[in-house]
Amino acid sequence: MIRRITAALAGADTTLLGPGDDAAVVAAADGRVVASTDMLVENRHFRRDWSTANDIGHKAAARSLADIAAMGAVPTALLVGFAAPGTLALDWVDGLVAGLREECGEVGAAVVGGDVTAADTITLAVTALGDLQGRDPVTLGGARVGDVVAVAGRLGWSAGGLAVLGRGFRSPVQVVTAHRRPEPPYAEGPRAAQLGATAMTDVSDGLIADLGHIAEASGVRLELRGEAIEVPAKLAEVGAALNVDPLVWVLTGGDDYALAATFPRGTDLPEQWRVIGAVIDGEGVRVDGRRWPVGGHEHYR
């Protein structure tokens, strides 16, 4: 199976030595390497009756690649630990590897190695590496009073798709696909760093929850304006059909891997970034001055 997987992988310009040896060698011209790890467990992070193997490969890569972009870095490589029962069909593995490879191709990165083991449950442990290209990393702790809060990418779509699937439906396809295969705005991470972003994160657990990490690390309050937070028409339609307020998905739904950042007031932001609030004195995150009752996903809640 290892030979089958490695034969299906492609390299990248930063891959100096790919799969097949004891370890890979990846170029790090900056002299610093940004690294992040994510895990996906079957029936916790994905379901095979809801998503194809290719979808799961895309999503597994996207989760970790978005973390690299959220530091203002450019992804260079993935290392993938893969555990599965011996009864798993090899063509399912082929689809998974294709998804990983294709998502890496979106950012010019490559799967450079990993590990395979037998287990009762399909589990993926994905480590992403990235290059800062001479820039300082954009951390959670740099937001300053007077900054603006902005987001890039979709919010609430994956949560809406999860709600649809959970009710036993498979449409609307646009919303369901957003859950199966997120589309992080990778290029906006390095761009935000170049524009002078003071803090940044990707939205994996929910907008309020992840902005809360910036607020805590920076010792400030992030005040969001409800009128500036868009609820797309398609999500509004789905919310009406399911009797759910779609704003809940937008504010607390994760798995879209949008980017949320703070910028000095007056920064000329491109159209991909939408200003939704400001950084003020205080603590936590508020929407129109009110604390939102549910912040987002917590694994052990």
From TrEMBL:
Reaction mechanism of ThiL seems to utilize a direct, inline transfer of the gamma-phosphate of ATP to TMP rather than a phosphorylated enzyme intermediate. PANTHER family: THIAMINE-MONOPHOSPHATE KINASE. Keywords: ATP-binding, Kinase, Magnesium, Metal-binding, Nucleotide-binding, Thiamine biosynthesis, Transferase. NCBIfam families: PRK05731.1-4, thiL. It comes from Jatrophihabitans cynanchi. InterPro entries: PurM-like_C_dom, PurM-like_C_sf, PurM-like_N, PurM-like_N_sf, ThiL-like. The keyword Hydrolase does not apply. This is Thiamine-monophosphate kinase. CDD domains: ThiL (cd02194). It catalyses: thiamine phosphate + ATP = thiamine diphosphate + ADP. Mg(2+) 4 binds at D22, S36, D67. Residues 20-130 form the PurM-like N-terminal domain. Its EC number is 2.7.4.16.
